[in-house]
Write a structure and sequence with these properties.
Helices cover 0% and strands 36% of the residues. The protein is an all-beta fold and 70 residues long.
Length: 70
C-alpha cells in the first residue's frame, strides 16, 4: 500500500541512542520530484526541541503510520 505524505501532516520522529525519545513533528515541505533510481524524495520536518536533546547529526526515524501523540 502506498502512503501519502502531505504538508501539514503530523507525524512522530523516533530517536535511539543516546536520547531514546520520540517527538511529534509536522511535515513542512515535500519535494514534488521523486528520484527515479532510488525512489526517494526530500522533505522537511519541523519539530520542537526545547530541552535541546536532539543534537546536530543525530538520526531519527519518521513514523508516518500513526499521528503524533498517539
Amino acid at each position: 500500500a502506498r502512503l501519502k505524505v502531505k504538508e501539514g501532516q503530523q507525524i512522530t520522529v523516533r530517536f535511539t541512542e543516546p536520547v531514546n525519545t520520540a517527538l511529534p513533528a509536522k511535515v513542512d515541505f515535500v519535494a514534488p520530484v521523486i528520484d527515479a533510481s532510488s525512489g526517494l524524495f526530500r522533505m522537511r520536518l519541523i519539530l520542537e526541541n526545547p530541552k535541546h536533546v536532539i543534537k546536530a547529526g543525530m538520526k531519527g526515524v519518521a513514523d508516518f503510520t500513526t499521528a503524533a501523540g498517539s
